[in-house]
Amino acid sequence: MSSLTCTSEYCNQGWSEVLTHMSPYGFANFGVAFGLGLSVIGAAWGIWLTGSSLVGAAVKAPRIKSKNLVSVIFCEATAIYGLIMAIILGNKIKEPESVGYYLDEGWDYNGYYYAGYGMFSAGLSVGLTNIASGVSVGLAGSSCAIADAQDASLFVKILIVEIFASALGIFGIIVGIIQSNACTFPTFALSQE
Fold first, then answer.
1. 96-111: burial string, b at 16+ Cβ within 10 Å, e else
2. How far apart are alpha carbons 71 and 142 in whole angstroms?
3. Higher per-residue confidence, 130 vs 190
4. How far is CA 67 from its chain centroid?
5. In angstroms, rounded to a whole number, what is the distance separating the alpha carbons of residues 102 and 123?
6. Other CB atoms closer than 10 Å to residue 112's CB: what's the count?
7. Segments in the chain forming alpha helices (H)
8. What is the Cα–Cα distance from 54 to 142, expressed in whole angstroms?
9. Burial of residue 114 (number of CB atoms within 10 Å: 0-12, 13-18, 19+)
10. Burial degree of 129 (CB within 10 A; 0-12, 13-18, 19+)
11. C-alpha–C-alpha distance, residues 123 and 177, integer Å
């Protein structure tokens, strides 16, 4: 069999061409999607880890069912952080007041791409941080439920570890807000000189 060869000039273009020719609004919307989607995945993963251990440990010690629901709430907070960031980023996406038909009409294309890339990185930062936070809170909550079933005095001690794991999500949303502060889509054309 012969291998396919491409003689067109477009065949040698790589990912850099894809990334530089994608709409900045697309990058911004992908940032919103990744921020919210990955945060919800992190929360779901943490709730799965905590919930399965909580149900299993509650068979041995039914008294732990209600107070260990705090662990599930900490996991759910990571989804809320993603939702907050999605609202912040979504409000920053502004449509231009008028649309130019030619590239030389005075539009600040660098400003568009700066805002699009910045919003993409802010959403990705929040989403990846909240996956890590959700998993770590889930593991700590799982340990808390199992330890509490064995010895009730361990609940508060392990809950403190869980609070530190939840702080990862707070740090992520702070970094995302700082990243998104400079992301403003231009809404008007630059003056022609």
1. eeeeeeeeeeebeeee
2. 8
3. 130
4. 29
5. 31
6. 18
7. 15-20, 24-60, 64-67, 69-92, 109-150, 155-181
8. 7
9. middle
10. buried
11. 9
Residue 6 clears pLDDT 70, i.e. is over it: no
- Return the CATH number of the domain spanning residue range 30-93+109-181: 1.20.120.610
Q: Please report, for the chain, the start and end positions of each structural domain, with discontinuous segments joined by +.
A: 30-93+109-181
Give the integer Cα–Cα distance in Å for 148 and 65.
10
Angle subtended at Cα 64 by Cα 59 and Cα 65, rounded to the nearest 5 degrees: 75
pLDDT band at 104 (very low <50, low <70, confident <90, very high): low
Please provide residue 174's backbone torsions phi and psi, each rounded to the nearest 5 degrees: -65, -45
Confidence class for position 129, pLDDT limits 50, 70, 90: very high
- Token pair recorded at residue 114: 């700066």
pTM of the model: 0.82
CA angle, corner 73, sides to 66 and 120, nearest 5? 165
